[in-house]
Design a protein that fits this description.
Elements lengths: L1 H28 L27 H4 L50 H7 L1 H4 L4 H9 L9 H11 L4 H14 L8 H16 L15 E6 L6 H14 L4 E4 L6 H14 L2 E3 L7 H15 L3 E4 L8 H18 L6 E7 L5 H12 L4 E5 L9 H9 L3 E5 L7 E3 L2 H9 L6
Parallel strand pairs: 1-4, 1-5, 2-3, 2-4, 5-6, 6-7
Antiparallel strand pairs: 7-8
């Protein structure tokens, strides 16, 4: 019995020793556990590259260097691939960036539209037509060419002073031999014409520097002030400017009614007074109302005829001072409206307005109704004021902002067939 017990204990010890031996052997054969390592480094981004795995890839696509040419065999990790902006993934929860905005481009030059409006001046009996006749079919010009050009310019209401200036500059620009070359003479005339109408580099578009900006339109009766106000309001309204019209010509009931009709058509409020009311009070009230209503532009009509010329000029000065009282700095623009069909006859009246008021520009109306298109040169040179708008028809869109180069091209530019 004792021997059996001893044998059992020995067997148990042998089995235990056996299992302990094999366990130690397995442990010795296993490799040591790996040390905790840092995450693999993030691939470096090179200029001109983006990384697909990078959630900020869309930001890289906006880099100035993005999209530059890449070389084969880059040292980027195999998972990094160049992508185009359209392929760049957006960050989670964030929409893709829109493409960079572009500045709006200027619309096409409406040379043909201007030419249609100047059809009378470009006709065979008009300013351009008569000049063209002097040059057509000639390979060289005779010594009398300057005299012939002078006759055409004077007949086209360019005026004596402006005609002399044009011809003197042409002679100064061209050497003696060039005066026989039709193309060189024509180009010199065009260049000088553009220089004359480019007064201080200012033309077209109102300078709306204040809110509200106050614009007085002055001129004799019949020049087209009220119609011009309606057309200007239409243009400004279309560009997002809120306008208010002031019926300052209280001496003519028809002028007030005409302005009211324009206001209804354009959707502008019209401030008016009773018949014969003080024009200054109407303009004052209009400016104050514009301030309260958040209006952008006040367009004020004015009288064009009183009992005497001195009375009219005194009334215009009073209106300007009243506008200044209502709003310091007003009026911001004083535009002289001239009927182009009156030609040189309108200059004497225009000079009176210029002496009385600090005019900022000219609106030349009814230019489509005259063959004497050269009147633009004469008026701009005589008054030394920039032409801001020209009227070439009755429709609201027939009032064109004046661009010297475009206008001279439309008036004196020859068609391909000519």
């Amino acid at each position: 019995m004792i021997y059996a017990l001893i044998a059992l204990v020995a067997l148990i010890a042998a089995v235990a020793a056996y299992f302990l031996f094999f366990k130690n052997r397995q442990t010795a054969e296993l490799p040591p556990p790996p040390k905790k390592s840092e995450p693999p480094p993030r691939p470096q981004r090179l200029p001109g590259r983006a990384v697909v795995a990078d959630t900020e890839a869309s930001d890289a696509s906006n880099s100035p260097a993005f999209g530059s040419a890449s070389k084969t065999g880059s040292n980027l990790a195999p998972t990094a691939t160049p992508i185009t902006p359209s392929q760049a993934p957006a960050s989670a929860g964030r929409p893709p960036r829109p493409p960079p905005s572009r500045q709006p481009e200027r619309g096409p030059r409406d040379i043909e539209g201007l030419r249609r409006g100047l059809s009378k001046a470009r006709g065979s009996e008009g300013f351009f037509g008569r000049l063209r006749a002097l040059f057509s079919g000639k390979k060289e010009l005779g010594a009398e060419i300057t005299n012939q050009i002078e006759e055409v310019l004077l007949a086209s209401d360019v005026g004596t002073e402006t005609t002399k200036l044009l011809l003197d500059r042409v002679r100064e620009t061209l050497v003696h031999g060039d005066l026989a070359d039709p193309e060189k003479v024509w180009d010199a005339l065009r260049a000088e014409a553009e220089r004359i109408v480019s007064i201080d580099g200012s033309s077209g578009a109102l300078e709306l520097t204040a809110k509200p900006s106050v614009v007085l339109l002055v001129g004799v009766n019949g020049a087209g002030k009220t119609t011009t106000i309606g057309k200007l309001a239409t243009k400004l309204n279309a560009s997002g400017k809120k306008c208010l019209l002031a019926a300052g010509d209280t001496f003519r009931a028809a002028a007030v009614q005409q302005l009211v009709v324009w206001g209804d058509r354009v959707g502008c409020e019209v401030v008016r007074g009773k018949d014969g009311a003080d024009p200054g009070s109407v303009v004052f009230d209009a400016i104050k109302k514009a301030e309260q209503s958040g209006v952008d532009v006040v367009l004020a009509d004015t009288a064009g005829r009183l009992h005497t010329k001195s009375n009219l000029m005194a009334e215009m000065k009073k209106l300007a001072k009243t506008a200044e009282k209502a709003l310091p700095g007003a009026p911001h623009e004083i535009l002289l409206v001239i009927d182009a069909t009156n030609g040189q006859n309108a200059l004497a009246q225009a000079r009176e307005f210029k002496e009385a008021l600090p005019l900022t520009g000219i609106v030349l109306t009814k230019l489509d109704g005259t063959a004497k298109g050269g009147v633009v040169l004469g008026i701009a040179n005589a008054l030394h004021l920039p032409v801001r708008f020209v009227g070439l028809g009755e429709r609201p869109d027939d009032l064109h902002e004046f661009a010297p180069a475009d206008f001279v091209e439309a008036l004196l530019g020859r068609d391909a067939a000519e």
